[in-house]
Amino acid sequence: MTEIPATPSPFTFDPTTTALVLIDMQRDFLLPGGFGESLGNDVALLRTVIDPLAGVLAAARAAGITVIHTREGHLPDLSDCPPSKLRRGNPSQRIGDQGRFGRILIRGEYGHDIIDELAPIDGEIVIDKPGKGAFYATELAAVLHRQSITTLLVTGVTTEVCVHTTVREANDRGYECLVIADCVGSYFPEFQRVGLSMISAQGAIFGWVADSAAVIAALDTTTATVTA
Ligand code: C5J
């Protein structure tokens, strides 16, 4: 078992039953000129996540931890997008409309894919999800079960929407979740702060919170043990 200093208490995990989950690090949310910015958001706030997350991803790969990427998006005919979701947001830039990086949040489009800095490599799992949570209408539960994963190191965007929804879904399904604070991002500083507090409040009601430095140090120890 590996132990990480975390809030509200130290977090222990077994690297062999742990997955690193990267939620929706997609161009549509993170690139200047993309969908996220078209909604009036400052993407610079999300982009602060990229460097620390690249560090955690490299450490996870070196330690042989299972890596799972998710992408929020829809089929080209939008048959998997509820009309209620389609109606939300900016009327001139809706899901399925033509955006700067292709049709917005449509599978197969450039903007729907993961940013170059964190692109999946061979052997990593990519889960396409139509909702905010990574368990809803996806194969994630089956994938985790098949690999005997019990613990999730959760990263990605946005903290209060897809990260929170996924952590809540995972918590209800019995997974232990550690959210890596500087590897999750929100367009709203207030939501970032409160979103993280809500995870670890009341004795880890949804999970634990730690910084990337602590996670990388723990993963590096695992790597050293594996390669010794
Ligand atoms: C949003 C997400 N915010 N990945 N998606 O619509 O959090």
Automatic annotation (TrEMBL):
GO molecular function: hydrolase activity
Keywords: Hydrolase
Pfam families xrefs: Isochorismatase
InterPro entries per UniProt: Isochorismatase-like_dom (IPR000868), Isochorismatase-like_hydrls (IPR050272), Isochorismatase-like_sf (IPR036380)
CDD domains associated with the record: cysteine_hydrolases
Domain Isochorismatase-like, first and last residues per copy: 18-211
PANTHER family in UniProt: FAMILY HYDROLASE, PUTATIVE (AFU_ORTHOLOGUE AFUA_2G08700)-RELATED, PEROXYUREIDOACRYLATE/UREIDOACRYLATE AMIDOHYDROLASE-RELATED
Protein name per UniProt: Nicotinamidase-related amidase
Naturally occurring in which organism (per UniProt): Nocardia alba
